[in-house]
Model the fold of this input.
Amino acid sequence: MSTSVFISGANGFIAQHIIALLLSKGYSVVGSVRSPAKGEKLKELYGSKFQYEVVPVLEKQGAFDDALKNHPEVTIFLHSASPAAIFVEDNEKDTLIPAINGTKFVLESVQKTSPQIKRFVYTSSILTIAYRELFSDPNFVASEEVYNPITYEEGKNNTGLDAYVASKSLAEKAAWDYVNKNKPQYTFSTVNPVCVLGPQAKDEEAKGSLSSTAEIINSVYKLTKDDKISEIGGQFVDVRDVAKAHVLAFEKDEAQGKRIITYTENFNPQLILNIIRKNFPELRERLPVGDPDNVNFSSYAKIDDKKSREILGIESISLEDSVISTVEQAIRAQN
Ligand code: NDP
Done:
């Protein structure tokens, strides 16, 4: 029988790549979603080795108990579900509470309900290491040892983006605290991606406005001649590398108890535009030119991901390859 992996937030951009990779490696997968319609859609996309459970509310104690009891065959748990919206009505209710309490409660459910689960991987973020420094402080070194000191109050009282940064930072902190205090039967590790770009796992999902950061390349691809180019850039990693990192995070003994940063190179929308213009000459007429030289990242922090790279041992997909795959997929989906 194949090893069975549970993943929360199964319909998400990153989660679907993890599911596709797991199935291609012979694992079977149980995914949690918030509605039966989302589960049925995933079953159509991923076939009979994929099953789903509906868990409508993340932040309820014991929310995952029934789903876990239905699957005594599961031995690995990946927790990927978390609010990812930046524009919310209520920072606490919409972002902080589901992320932080949801993470604590799911760790507890797995410990109490599923003694056979031996490995737990949490999808964290580079933002639990730093946020503003990433773009503004070239002397800042972001590494696996650094923790973002953002507080709950800052997340509650500032912008929706601050709430997101605080939600990830405090959820990861709560997770390490839980594991250190309660000594569960599973080992625990985190994957801390920078900004995740790249194609959808399935072409069927590449239509319209895309969820999460998947929309970043798509929005540059959709620009027309007179549109302004956004200045907001960041650090890039391809979604397929993030999926690999999640799988290696439970497969490799040396990944246990570790934070694993996934990072490849820096980007901004102008650089994405330059790559599209270079590789898709047929789109040049429609796209703007912008300022092709506006691709300077000297104010960005240094990402020291040496330890993570040693653990993962994978060759990263470049921004250029990521943009090409994404645009090729957008063109296929459009046709
Ligand atoms: P998506 O928005 O595509 O996926 C988010 C998933 O979480 C969806 O399944 C969503 O369900 C679920 N979710 C959101 N809010 C809740 C909630 N309150 N209760 C239950 N489920 C919820 O985003 P990504 O794939 O990008 O994100 C996946 C994970 O990766 C998140 O933990 C995110 O913080 C993390 N991450 C993402 C990065 C990125 O650049 N994209 C970078 C670093 C970390 P539904 O569809 O029903 O809303």
Remarks:
- The radius of gyration is 20 Å.
- The chain has one domain: 4-334.
